Amino acid sequence: MTRCRTRSILKAIVVVLLVITASGPKHSLAVDAKQLLEKKYPKAVSLSSHSEWLALLHYNVSPSGKIKKSYINSKTFFLSDQGQRNPHAELLATLDALTLTEPQDDSSASCRFPARKLWLETKTDYSFATSDCTEYPKWAELDTVESISMVFATGHFASPASFFGHNFLKINRVDASSYLLDKAINFGALIPPNENPVTYLATGIFGGYEAEYSAEPFYRFLAKYGEKDLRDVWEYKLALTATQRALVVAHLWELNEVRFPYYFFRENCAYHISALLNLVTTDTFVPRFMPWAMPITVFDNMMTSQVNGKPLVADIELHRSRRTFFQNRFAASSVQQKKLIHHYALGNYDLNDSAIFNSLSEEQKIWVVDTLLDYSAFMSKERDGEEHKENQRQLLIKRLQLAEGKMQQPRADKSKPPHLGQRPSYTAAGIRSFEQGERKALVRIRPAYYDFMSLDIARKSHASFTLFDAEFEVDDDNEARVNRFDLVNLSNLNTQYSGIAIDKASSWQLRIAYRNVADDCNDCGAWSGQWDIGKSRKLTPGIAVFALAGVSLDESRNRTANGALHAQLGVTGSLHPLWRFHATANYTESFNHYQPFDTSFELENRFGNSRWWDIRVKVRRRDKLNTSLTAGIYW
Amino acid sequence: MNIKRLTASCTFAVALLVTSMGNVSAENRDFKTALEECFWGLILTSESQRGLSLGLNVVSGALGSYAYTSATMSPDTFCAEKTQNTAKFVNETYPKLAEDVARGNGDFLRTAMELTGCNTDSARSAVSSDLRKELSNDLQHVNYSSMQHAEKAFRMYSSLNLSAQAHCNV
Predict the structure, then answer these.
(1) Which of A196, A284, A390, A492 is surrounded by the most beta carbons within 10 Å?
(2) Are residues A190 and A236 in the same domain?
(3) Could you tell me if A151 and A252 lie in one domain?
(4) Which of A139, A180, A378, A386 to mutate to test the interface with B (most CBs of B within 10 A)?
(5) Share of chain A above pLDDT 90, in %
């Protein structure tokens, strides 16, 4: 190599180095400035790996404690260009910004990040520059904050996004009488309007949507959940100190218009709303090792969590849906009032014509009219809603004619809070015996969520919603097979809830599953998609009968598509607190001429009413009669 | 006093009376118009209202026609944040609010009054009484059941604000 060429190469290297140095990140602190800050605020700098600092920046921390990237997408949330991945850099940049005396308006770091400032000041004895914030104090109204609640809206079959329920935060004001105006903090995906269902499902599951926290008045949530969806709303009030409340509220201000990626199963409302609790406690509210986060798990874990040496949950309150209001009031009505309400529900809407109504006292009439207002309100969501709108008008006229006064509520309420319900995942093991004496070991694993045997606390009664429910059999030769794999199994009997024979909703069932089509064949599994529709009626308060009919598209044994018509009669319910059962008789008319029709009978029993375990006995007859006995745990 | 002077005095007095009545009506009409513009401008810019025929800046409902414009929402106009909050609350909670009005009591009625600044018991009692009268009148109308939700809510909102203006320190 000539000397000239070597000199050119060296010059080029120097130029490249100069360019790299000059085009370095815009907001990197110079080494001197960093050292100055570290020297001036040694206590603060040592906090960069503190769990609360990591929670303020929404870092993803692995179960082993490794700090990964922040969940936050919005670059404006970070003061350091490395802030998304480096909590130490972000802390130094925050300290640098907080010490600036300019600007002093809402664009200052003090006003944009009041939670960071508050946290640093409480963890150390430092005081930072004050600013003339106007927007933050107006939004936060800290002097009106009395407490903070975590809220759960029970699940709903109207949309897949609602199957698991929903949770959000509520900031409660000092004047409890106007709780309707309390600020509710929601975490939700930003979904384009008129999104088609397939895109919605795929993008929600595999990613592509962004999400953000948003604040709305609480009445809006009650209108949606309690009035429109007929879902109960449970409020768990948290035992936080004034400083902790201020920290949470201030952080919510910092999260205004900040974007997160959204994943339906894991990085969802349960995950990110409960993450706010990590500002005040190191407890875990969603399982670290699971690929999913369910709202119900958050509330379960909250009940065993402590803060400030006391239980995290101070109180629990129920905001009843219209349906629950009606059910409670109907149950608490006298025999005469029940008769009158039943008569009304059968179409006798003119109360003035009713001898029973006219014989009631003023107070009893008020009770009946208030109960019927609830009935008409939730029935107006049904198909013949127009009829009930006219009924509502007549009932309001009648109520105006009666004495003024607050609506009376029945004292007893059978509703139980969601943390007492069945835990969401299930594993069972046992034995299956066939009529010829053959026996097989049985293992079942179900990640989510509940079936007809589950305790019906804080969920729809006479309904089933399971995902990835797998059952394995191992025979005497240690040959294992998948007996059944339900990708999704949704069943909603819509059994009349009101106790009066007027609920007109249909029962339905959707199942996509892989199932073994013959008891004596190890390689006879086939995929099937089935849809049934029907009706259900209550026999007694604890037992319902149902009839369903439908169609399925099946993968046949020779791998060509096949189909069948189905009919099912069933009875389900509970005869004793420790015994639930679900029995069905099934008839299948196949389009496959090799197997024209098929009948089967199944009776499943659950013993025990624990939310942690059960014993199940199942009797089934298809090709062969078989009985299985399993012990299961809920987790 | 001679007849001519008496006639002139009476004419003058009547003229004064008519003018003052006209002024009071004009004030009420301005306030009512402001309520219409605020409510409909807010609701119609934020959601579609099926069933209402929308002419240019006019909403035709079952019980009347209402003028609106979308250019009324700013802190300096009548339709400031506080008034918008009341409009949204009434629109979104109307069924429950109507029931509370019929009872003369309840969380939704109390919240509506708080939003309009009615904080004393006597003021609330007067407003509640007005609302019950207005609701009763509306319910008697044969078209009430077919009335769109937004129109029912607007009429409640209008009655609430008019009554609050009369009885509360707003």
Answers:
(1) A492
(2) yes
(3) yes
(4) A180
(5) 60
Q: How far is CA A596 from CA A564, A591, A593, in A?
A: 9, 7, 5
Residue A22: its pLDDT value, please? Answer: 46
Pairing of strands A480-492, A561-576: unpaired
How far is A327 from A337, CA to CA, in rounded Å? 13
Here the tokens at position A235 are: 């409020």
Chain A nearest-CA distance from B92, in A, is 7
Same domain, A262 and A205: yes
Domain C-terminal end among A95, A123, A151: A123
Question: What is the span of the domain harbouring residue A450?
Answer: 421-634
CB-closest option in B104, B108, B136 to A180 = B108
Q: Does A219 touch chain B (CB under 8 A)?
A: yes
Q: Is residue A131 part of a domain?
A: no
Residues A384, B93, B101: CA angle, nearest 5 degrees: 95
Among A386-390, A508-512, B22-26, the range with the most confident prediction by mean pLDDT is A508-512
Start-to-end Cα distance in chain A: 72
Per-residue pLDDT tens for A243-273? 999 999 999 999 999 999 999 999 999 999 9
Rounded CA separation A155/A229 (Å) = 10
Q: What's residue A467's pLDDT?
A: 92
Compute the distance between CA of residue B109 and CA of residue B160 in angstroms, rounded to an integer.
10
Check whether residue A473 and residue A592 sit in a common domain: yes
A594 cis-preceded (ω within 30 degrees of 0): no
Task: Indicate whether A305 and A359 sit together in one domain.
Answer: no
Q: What is the pTM of this model?
A: 0.87
- DSSP letter at A223 equals I
Number of domains in chain B: 1
Chain segment A574-620, per-residue pLDDT in tens: 989 999 999 999 999 887 766 667 899 999 999 999 999 999 999 99
What pLDDT is recorded for position A549?
A: 96
The one-letter amino acid at A344: Y
Give the separation between CA A121 and CA A106, rounded to whole angstroms: 19
Structural domain count, chain A: 4
Q: What pLDDT is stored for residue A560 in this prediction?
A: 58
Pick from B92, B104, B145: which is nearest to A393 by CB?
B145
What is the pLDDT at residue A406? 78
Q: How many A/B residue pairs have CB atoms within 8 Å?
A: 71
| Residue with more model confidence, B73 or A217 | A217
Residue B105, pLDDT score: 92
The string of DSSP codes covering B158-170 is HHHHHHHHHHS--
B135 interaction partners in chain A (CB closer than 8 Å)? 396, 400
Q: How far is CA A157 from CA A24, A229, A494, A552, in A?
A: 53, 9, 11, 21
Q: Report the length, in residues, of chain A.
A: 635
Between these two residues, A612 and A3, which has the higher pLDDT value? Answer: A612
Contact A389 B145 (CB under 8 A): yes
Domain range holding B58? 3-167
What is the DSSP code string of A130-172?
----SHHHHHH-GGGEEEEEEEEEPP-TTSGGGTT-EEEEEEE
Whether A372 and chain B come into contact, CB under 8 Å, resolves to no
Three-state SS annotation for A390-406: HHHHHHHHHHHHCCCCC
Residue written as tokens 């987790």? A635
Give the mutation candidate from B139, B143, B156 for the A interface (greatest A CB count, under 10 A): B139
Tell me how far apart the alpha carbons of residues A500 and A346 are, in angstroms, rounded to a whole number.
Answer: 9
Q: What single-letter amino acid sits at A477?
A: D
Per-residue model confidence (pLDDT) at position A388: 80
**From A373, which residue of chain B is nearest by alpha-carbon distance?**
B99
